[in-house]
């Protein structure tokens, strides 16, 4: 393979690698759906009648659920995608989540909200995200594959000092 062809192949490989590692273009954020269960401080007993609110960083409530049913289940659908704090309103008072929750467009993993006197703690239901690779992990895999591809192209395209043997 000529030097010109090797340079072209390497340039093309680098362009593909860079394009693959860039974050996707910002698309119009679609609606999100979100739900789960509200349970008491023991982490088991369902809490009926609670209302779950999505609260923005500046404290505005965006949307809320209907009161939880006898199983403590709640659903917020549709909701604008984005980052929110969760506020759970009950007859015992209000509980504000210590950490924000990020809602992606479409269905989001169910959460179990445990009401505690210091505030709710959040745990994903078992198995909800099993096997899901985080976004940064996908970029690492793509980058590693791109680098491996560049090494393979370099190895294949190297000129060897051995003369070609006639058939």
The first-to-last residue Cα distance is: 20 Å
Query: Would you tell me which CATH topology of the largest domain applies?
Result: Immunoglobulin-like
Number of strands: 10
User: What is the architecture of the largest domain at the second tier of CATH?
Assistant: Sandwich
The secondary structure category is: alpha+beta
Q: What is the C-level CATH assignment of the largest domain?
A: Mainly Beta
Mean pLDDT: 75
The arrangement of helices and strands along the chain is HEEEEEEEEEEH
Strand content: 25-35%
What low-confidence regions span 5 or more consecutive residues with pLDDT below 50?
A: 24-28, 119-131
Please name the fourth-level CATH homologous superfamily of the largest domain. Immunoglobulins
Largest sheet: 5 strands, mixed
Shape: rod-shaped
Q: How many separate structural domains?
A: 2
Q: So how many helices? A: 2
Helical content (DSSP H or I, runs of 4+)? 25-40%
What is the CA-atom radius of gyration, in angstroms? Answer: 26 Å
Task: Please tag this protein with its features.
167 residues; alpha+beta; Immunoglobulin-like; 2 domains; five-stranded mixed sheet; five-stranded antiparallel sheet; 25% helix; 31% strand; rod-shaped
């Amino acid at each position: 393979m000529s030097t010109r062809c090797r340079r072209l192949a390497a340039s093309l490989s680098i362009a593909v690698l860079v394009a693959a590692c860039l974050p996707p273009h910002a698309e119009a954020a679609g609606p999100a759906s979100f739900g789960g269960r509200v349970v008491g401080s023991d982490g088991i007993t369902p809490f009926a009648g609670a209302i779950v609110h999505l609260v923005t960083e500046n404290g505005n409530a965006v949307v809320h659920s209907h009161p939880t049913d006898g199983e403590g289940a709640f659903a917020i659908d549709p909701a604008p995608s984005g980052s929110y704090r969760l506020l759970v309103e009950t007859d015992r008072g209000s509980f504000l989540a210590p950490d924000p929750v990020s809602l992606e467009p479409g269905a989001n993993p169910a959460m179990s909200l445990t009401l505690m006197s210091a505030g709710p703690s959040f745990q994903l239901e078992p198995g909800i995200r099993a096997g899901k690779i985080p976004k940064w992990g996908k970029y690492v895999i793509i980058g590693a594959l791109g680098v491996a591809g560049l090494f393979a192209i370099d190895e294949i395209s190297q000129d060897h000092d051995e003369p070609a043997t006639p058939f």
